[in-house]
């Protein structure tokens, strides 16, 4: 299996894993009845930009590489800003969350340390010619 196919497989797995995270996320009954706040809107914006970065990565667009790295760094800061859960998260949620970090790390490593990084500069050269 080539690195490019494996890389695209990781992106698809990341999307599937995000569905698992959203499905198993603990729902706070108190917070569910409250209107959306600033952090909720930040979370929605983060999710949309994260999806955009994955689409750009899948297409080997050079901007996707930088955007993905920035989104992951901002995601860490966003997670630190969130209040603690009032209900304990399930084991399935914890596993999906852990997998998300592992897959994001693998994508970052492949972006900068393998031959996949050449695809981003090569796609730019092909578009210019």
Overview of this structure, please?
The protein is mostly helical and 129 residues long. It has one domain (3-23, 37-128). 80% of the residues lie in helices and 0% in strands. The protein has 6 helices and no strands. It has helices at 3-24, 29-32, 38-58, 62-81, 91-113, 116-128. Helix 1 packs antiparallel against helix 3 (38-58) and helix 3 packs antiparallel against helix 4 (62-81). The radius of gyration is 17 Å and the shape is elongated. The two termini are 29 Å apart.
Which keywords apply here?
single chain, mainly alpha, 129 residues
β-strand percent reads: under 5%
Low-confidence stretches: none
Number of strands: 0
Tell me the series of helices and strands, N- to C-terminal.
Answer: HHHHHH
Structural class: mainly alpha
What's the arrangement of secondary structure elements?
Blueprint: H1 3-24, H2 29-32, H3 38-58, H4 62-81, H5 91-113, H6 116-128
Helix pairs in contact: 1-3, 1-5, 3-4
Concise overview:
It contains 6 helices and no strands. The chain has 129 residues and is mainly alpha-helical. The longest helix is centred in the C-terminal third of the chain and has 23 residues, at 91-113.
């Amino acid at each position: 299996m080539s690195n490019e196919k494996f890389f695209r497989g990781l992106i698809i797995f990341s999307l599937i894993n995000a569905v698992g995270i959203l499905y198993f996320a603990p729902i706070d009954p108190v917070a569910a009845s409250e209107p959306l706040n600033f952090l909720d809107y930040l979370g929605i914006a983060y999710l949309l930009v994260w999806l955009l970065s994955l689409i750009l990565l899948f297409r080997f667009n050079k901007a996707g590489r930088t955007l993905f790295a920035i989104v992951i760094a901002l995601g860490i800061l966003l997670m630190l800003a969130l209040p603690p859960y009032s209900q304990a998260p399930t084991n399935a949620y914890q596993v999906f969350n852990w997998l998300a970090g592992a897959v994001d790390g693998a994508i970052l490593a492949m972006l900068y340390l393998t031959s996949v990084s050449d695809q981003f500069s090569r796609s730019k050269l092909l578009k210019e010619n």
